[in-house]
Amino acid sequence: MDNDTYLAIGRMLDRLPPGDPSRSGLDFLANALFTRFEQAGRMDDLEVSISLYRGALSLRPPGHPLRPLSLNELAHAVWTRFEQAGRMKDLEESIVLRRDALELCPHGHTHRSSSLNNLAVAVRTRFEQTGRMEDLEEAIVLHRNALELRPPGHPDRSSSFNNLAVAVSTRFEQTGRMEDLEEAIVLHRDALELRPPGHTLRSGSLSNLAGAVSTRFEQTGRMEDLEEAIVLHRDALELHRPGHTHRSSSLNNLAVAVLTRFEQTGRMEDLEEAIVLHRNALELRPPGHPDRSSSFNNLAVAVSTRFEQTGRMEDLEEAIVLHRDALELCPPGHTLRSGSLSNLAGAVSTRFEQTGRMEDLEEAIVLHRDALELRPPGHTLRSGSLSNLAGAVSTRFEQTGRMEDLEEAIVLHRDALELRPPGHTDRSSSFNNLAGAMSTRFEQTGRMEDLEEAIVLHRDALELCPPGHTLRSGSLSNLAGAVSTRFEQTGRMEDLEEAIVLHRDALELRPPGHPDRSSSFNNLANAVQTRFKQTSRMEDLEEAIVLHRDALELHPPGHSHRSASINNLANAVQTRFKQTSRMEDLEEAIVLHRDALELRPPGHPDRSSSLNNLAGAVRTRFEKSGRMEDLEESLRIYEEGAEHVFSNTLTRLEVAVRWAVLARSQRHVPTLKAYRVALSLLEKFLVITPTVQMQHKILLGKNGYPTLASDAASYAIEIGEVAQAVEMLEQGRALIWSQLRGFRTPIEQLREVNKGLADKFLTTSRELESLATSSESKPTTLDARHSATGASQKLVDEMYSRKRRLASRLEDVVSEIRATSGFEDFLRARRFSVLQEAAVEGPVIIISHSKYRSDALIVLHDRPPVSIELDSNFSLDSIDLFGDLKLALQKVQTEPNVCDAGIRDVLESLWNRVVSRVVEKLDELGIEKQTRIWWCPTSYLSALPFHAAGPIRVVDGIRQYLSDDYVSSYTPTLTALVNARESKPEIRRHDNERPRLLVVALPDKSLPSVEEEYRAIQENRDFVRCLVGEQATREAVIDKFRDHDWVHFACHGHLNHEQPFLHAFQLFGEDRLTLLDIIQSNLPNAEFAFLSACHSAGQGLDGAFGEVLHLSAAMQFSGFRSVIGTMWAMADIDGPFVTKRFYRHMFAKEDSPELGYKRSARALRETIQRLRKRQGITVERWVNLIHIGA
Questions:
Q1: For the segment 531-554, what is each residue's pLDDT rounded down to a tens digit?
Q2: Residue 1162 burial (CB < 10 Å; 0-12/13-18/19+)?
Q3: What is the dihedral of CA 252, 257, 261, 262, to 10 degrees?
Q4: 3-state SS track over 2-34
Q5: pLDDT 10s digits, 272-281
Q6: What would the mean pLDDT of 640-646 be, rounded to a whole number?
Q7: Are 641 and 612 spatial neighbours (Cβ–Cβ below 8 Å)?
């Protein structure tokens, strides 16, 4: 009978008069259609049955004895429609109907237990859609109440056992409480006992119990549980003979279980059986069957797994087709659509890994985003979608190097972890995934906080995978990898030894046939090979080679990890060559590196790494054989690796440095190009890092980058390209200051041409500067645990993400500006012809320090630069000179005579080995005595007092120094000096007007002379404003900065050797004005600053001297044209004398050609000459004060 006939009969019955007994046939017809729907899956049967059930309900008004039955029948029908179509209003209606039915079945009613059960099933279903735990808890209570009403002997007692078991199992999945899982198993066993052989529901109980013990296996790894589950599923299948309505489900369940066993044992028989079973299940689910989409999906998963074992692309292609078929059966609104989207995304991602087709990866990301949209906050599967999308965008990052993708992945992984609280079954996976992303960011940025967090997360994951847990081997391996990486950074052997133990433990859990056994071979091999490098135990190296060969055997052609295995084996045999000089090993290594490179074609993210390895091996062969072909090939390979834009910047930077070093050692033509590429990559590497503090940490790494610019310049000098040497020093030094100056590039001329473009640049630059100078939150301590969810770490993630967006926007704006006529060189590295402007008022002497050579470069305004090669030992001796100065200053209080003698030795050495030769050249160039000169030392030399070198002669028994013949100043870079001289349109005061002078003074018991110092400045000067004592708060000082042209600090100065951006002036109470505070100040009216405080021009001892990070440099950056600072601790007693004499010189000569701040250098020189003549003045006291800037 067709539906039209059923409907016709239904309408006929409906037209019968109320009370006619024939009208009850509506209920009969509805049941018949619903049964046919269950058999054939035709939705029109279900729709008609619902209409008929509604008609039947209307005939059973409140008070009718059969009304509860009609309510339940209609509720069940609309609930079934919900299962098919996913319409939440059907589910909500079903719950309302079942509540109504329950109200009509009070305590004692024969159908109360059934109503309790039906309502429980409905609210549990709603929980599955919304994640509201109240629904799940209510369902459990309802099922328990139903069970109480079904005592031993009740025909539905077994069903209540089963339903309650399902509900507490679901709660286990949310909370991870093993008590719930254990209770579920007991309840399923109780249900099974009530369903002996021959019972119609026995097969269902067998399947349910099998599912529960399978879940316990997943938690504990007890193979007995998995084996029992398989036996139970086979028993259920035997009861579902061909033709049985549930046979397809039994085939599916058994297939899933044997596939799980395959994953544990690697027995291909299990995998093949699982595929056969899934195909059989699919055949029993023809078009229109409600579970056909699930069968498509399950079979797809099985053939995907076979692909992973065999590499047969036919399997992967079939899996994708099957997943697409499944998705077609899950249209928008279908409850399973999000799962199908996710599964298809996983399959096309896998195809991407095999073919490298970016279309597949992009499709996967779109599919994962679509799935996530269907799993809004509260959805039980939202955390899985967040994790999957994170994995996909991480993969895209690996391909493109776009840090936005990595930052998004970290945010997504954190969000997923928050949705997996303690007890959640997937919490360990979230720990692991987030840890992997943090490790990746560490590899990109070098931030140790990221690596430390990754280790903590991996330990947390391992704690959730106790012995026997199916994921334990993976957690052991991941933790081992992270601590190995930390060893590479710190050299702590405990980390390496722990990593080896962890890798061995993981390997034991991956017996022959285990799909991850090859990875364990590889990981353990790398760890013992690293130990060999530390201890030279050949047993470790030999074991590593054996393990790498074992791993490679498990990675046949076509395997996604084959290139990595080949690469690792190549590195190991190359290492053995270095120990034994057996050429066979070197030749094998070269062959292996070539094989690995073939598997990493252009565009592959690891290509630069493979090029680097091959170049190193071929270079070694050149060094042994002298074959020029090998040298040429090695240089070509290094060049390609440095310029391969699809590899990460850090790897390319390492390759570029090696390229430059090799080219230089062979006096090869491209050496200068190699250095230029390396310097550009160093700049680019810093760009990805949000804050100046983070950038500084990168420059402190054990990678030689702080000396890159000096090494490059030394080569340029070597080949006679002195102007290029100056350009390279300017490009590769003081990188942090250069970046910040770029954000403050004047745009007045651009504004006249294109106001909108100028505003875009200004807005973006201000945002970038604000981010760069923001305070980096301290990372969550290891004791705090679970730092992944900490606000501070999330802030860092947001910083990286925001930096990427802003940097990309700025790059676009700058490109647009450069396309504007007259602005083609906007923000490009300055050419020498522009840098020469720094010498317009006197020569600038750059002292270049490199391990290759050291030189003094004299930059002149109107002539080419002049180079003076210093003696060959100066490069090394100058480091000792720096150490000698440091040791001498440590004795200033305890052994002043020793301190004085030590400093004199340093000054004499500087004169004899550097400054005397510079002075000779200045004489040759016609530079007159008493003119101004500027010093620009590099590296360690930036801490040495060139301005006071000598004695240059002795006159009437008095030693004379460089400061007697020249007025010396310092500048961090040429650009800084050029900027200091540029006109400031904001300044409205004429040069012959008095400045507005702010004095910040903090007199106390340790600085008793400060009061006399500030009163000497204040006396008879109405343009002086003082902030003294409690007035000198951080807020007040920052507020008054903008209102004054000049500023004088008389207070304590502090160095922070670990965090130079926390160098500071001590203000009132606990307040400090830090270097970072000063940078954040943009002072358009600033002209001159006198920093009468300890270490105000001194750097910390962290090693990044090329960055010139001291308080005086910060004052100059913030706007002050001229700054006077101290190289070390200042004697308090000298403050009043120096201040009086200095300001007397500054304001004495109204007719001086040097007005305002430009007097400061000469005024300081004259003051120091007077100070030197005072009785008892030691060398360290008069050498200490220096002038910086214009």
A1: 998 999 999 999 999 999 999 999
A2: middle
A3: 10
A4: CHHHHHHHHHHHHHCCCCCHHHHHHHHHHHHHH
A5: 999 999 999 9
A6: 91
A7: yes
- pLDDT single digits (tens) 327-346: 999 999 888 899 999 999 99
Report whether 77 contacts 65 (CB < 8 A): no
Token pair recorded at residue 456? 């903590």
Residue 192 φ then ψ, to 5° = -65, -40
Q: Does the pLDDT of residue 983 top 80, yes or no?
A: no
The conformational region for residue 243 under phi > 0 = left, psi -120 to 50 = alpha, else beta, is left
Residue in the block written with tokens 């190359």: 574
- Predicted TM-score of the model (pTM): 0.65
pLDDT of 687 strictly over 90: no
Q: To which H or E segment does residue 1160 belong?
A: helix 1160-1173
Strand pairing of 1122-1126 and 1088-1092? parallel
Sign of the CA dihedral with 500 first, then 503, 505, and 510 last: negative
Q: Is 686 exposed, middle or buried (0-12, 13-18, 19+ CB in 10 A)?
A: buried
Q: Nearest CA to 1059 among 860, 866, 775, 839? A: 775
Please give the DSSP secondary-structure letter assigned to residue 1130: P
Q: Which of 742, 752, 753, 751 is nearest to 820 (CA)?
A: 753
* Tokens found for residue 707: 């000396």
Q: Report which residue type is found at 281.
A: A
Phi-psi region of 968 (alpha: psi -120 to 50; beta: other; left: phi over 0): beta
Neighbour count for residue 704 (Cβ, 10 Å):
12
Look up tokens 């290492």; give the residue: 575
Q: Which two tokens stand for residue 957?
A: 């028994």
CA 775/CA 1027 separation, integer angstroms: 26
pLDDT of residue 646: 83
Give tens-digit pLDDT for 374-400. Answer: 999 988 889 999 999 999 999 888 777
Q: Are 942 and 936 in contact (CB under 8 A)?
A: no
Rg of the chain (C-alpha set): 39
Which long-range CB contacts under 8 A does 95-99 form with residues at least 24 apart? Answer: 95/119, 95/122, 95/123, 95/126, 97/71, 97/72, 98/71, 98/72, 98/122
Rounded (10°) angle between helices 583-598 and 607-625: 150
Q: Is 110 helix (H, G, I), strand (E, B) or coil?
A: coil
Rounded to whole angstroms, how far apart are CA atoms 505 and 476? 7
Closest among 661, 98, 221 to 475, alpha carbons compared: 221
Q: What is the spatial distance between Cα 1029 and Cα 1045, in angstroms, rounded to a whole number? A: 22
Q: Band of the pLDDT at 37, cuts 50, 70, 90?
A: confident
Dist. CA 185–CA 210, nearest whole Å: 9
Q: Tokens for 611, please give them.
A: 């090029």
Secondary structure class of 406 (helix, strand, coil): helix
Please, which pLDDT band fits residue 784 given cuts at 50, 70 and 90?
Answer: very low
What pLDDT score was predicted for residue 704? 53
Closest CA to 683 of 818, 811, 831, 813: 811
Are 708 and 699 in contact, with CB atoms under 8 Å apart? Answer: no
Please give the structure tokens belonging to residue 1158: 């430009």
CA distance 579 to 504: 26
Read off the tokens for 1165.
Answer: 């020189």
Cβ neighbours, 10 Å, residue 1075: 26
> Tokens 């290094």 label which residue?
638
Please provide the distance, in angstroms rounded to a whole number, between the alpha carbons at the two ends of the chain: 101
State the DSSP H helix or E strand holding residue 1185, giving kind and residue range, or none if neither. Answer: strand 1185-1189
